[in-house]
Amino acid sequence: MHEREVTFGEQVGRLLPRLRRFARALTRHAADADDLVQLAVERALMRSQQWQPGSSLTNWMLAIVRNAWIDETRARRRRDAVLAPEDAAAEVGDTGTERDIELWSIQSALERLPEEQRLAVALVLIEGLSYREAAQVMDVPIGTLTSRLARGRSALQAMLTDQGATHEAREDKR
Amino acid sequence: MTVTDEELMAYVDGELDAARSESLRQEISASAELTRRVAGQQALRDRLRNAFDRTLEEPVPPRLTDLASHDRVIDLASFARRRPPRTVWLSGLALAAGIVLGIALGPALVKLAREQPDVIANGANVAAGGALADALSRRLASEQSASNPIRLGVSFVANSGEYCRTFVSQHGDDALAGMACRQGAEWRIDALQSVPIAAGDSAGYRQAATSLPPLVRQTAEASMAGDPLDARGEAAARDRQWVSPAATR
After folding, report:
1. Longest Cα pair distance anywhere in chain B, in angstroms?
2. What is the 3-state secondary structure (H, E, C) of chain A?
């Protein structure tokens, strides 16, 4: 029987959970993250011929998400339509579970990092890419990546230590 | 010797070579200060990872899975869902006469008829012939190669009950995008529009295959009875020689 080859779209489809996770690290609004993934998948399907079989499709897709995100933030800055942080906080509401609150506080901290540091942190610490891979996705030399990663990490550490303390205090009270 | 934060991070990330990693491991175990710093880095890494891993378990919205499963026909699929159908319908007659499309199509059709018998004018109708008819009848959207000048877009059941397919056919520096519907043993062409491509721009051509020109897209949107066929539905339609599902009812 003839076995049908897995189409390019299907291969991309399998990566959707990971692409969504990466997008959620870049923008904490779930709907924005999905819009970003949609844009990236549209672009990827259009440019499927540019992907070199044998190379990592995951990293190629992450780079497309990253580029789409940069385009999007530039356009957004022009439109001056960035949501105020207060609006985002309202999304969580009072119904958030402990895990929701944890994700939300990390996303808020990430949001306060400069764009390039956030990308470095997301690729290495959340997506688990090697330094070399992350540098390729960001299209920067490896030294640039490691310094952005170090700065982003230190800033996050400082921001989250306070929140972490309150987080633990809340746990203790139970 | 002091160990920099950057090196500790590289240690936690598994980026140091084996020898340095081992010597650092020993330094760390001998120093409460280093142990504390490494634990801090490790905790941050774990915390980020754990917080975001839950997003992997969330169901992926259908709009994203649909997009990927329709592969090269995304534009149309998402358009059909977003927009109410518009009443743009080009009859074969209007098309053949070049009335509706005017100069945009007229020269293209003439050129096409002259150079390639892919589209044949037959009285009131314009039908696909030659390689185009062959591709429309036999080829699935998942079976295309970049080198083939005819690319198939989306297949769907039209309001008329007929099976219809969109395509882009390249002729030298010109490409024609169109929509054809199966009528009897023929593929009747209901919309056709030329797609300009820069010389040597194969990416432009590929893009044309994805983003249909407005006229073809609108015609397809207006005709589409439901969602485009998925890969399985398309294969099933081909297996029944594109005989209208309405005809057998």
Report:
1. 92
2. CCCCCCCHHHHHHHCHHHHHHHHHHHCCCHHHHHHHHHHHHHHHHHCHHHCCECECHHHHHHHHHHHHHHHHHHHHHHHCCCCCHHHHHHHHCCCCCHHHHHHHHHHHHHHCCCHHHHHHHHHHHHCCCCHHHHHHHHCCCHHHHHHHHHHHHHHHHHHHHHHHHHHHHHHHHC
ipTM surpassing 0.95: no
pTM: 0.54
Q: What is the CATH number of the domain that holds A38?
A: 1.10.1740.10
Residue of A nearest to B44 (CA): A157
A30 and A78 share one domain: yes
Final residue belonging to a domain, choices A82, A116, A150: A82
Out of A8, A21, A48, closest to residue B55 by CB: A21
For chains A and B, count residue pairs whose Cβ atoms are closer than 8 Å: 119
- pLDDT tens for each residue of B81-134: 333 322 223 333 334 333 333 333 444 454 544 444 455 544 445 677 777 888
Could you report the per-residue pLDDT of A1-58, keeping only the tens digit for each? 444 567 788 889 999 999 999 999 998 888 889 989 998 988 888 788 788 878 899 9
Q: Are A10 and B206 a contacting pair at CB < 8 A? A: no
Dihedral sign, CA of A100, A105, A108, A110? negative
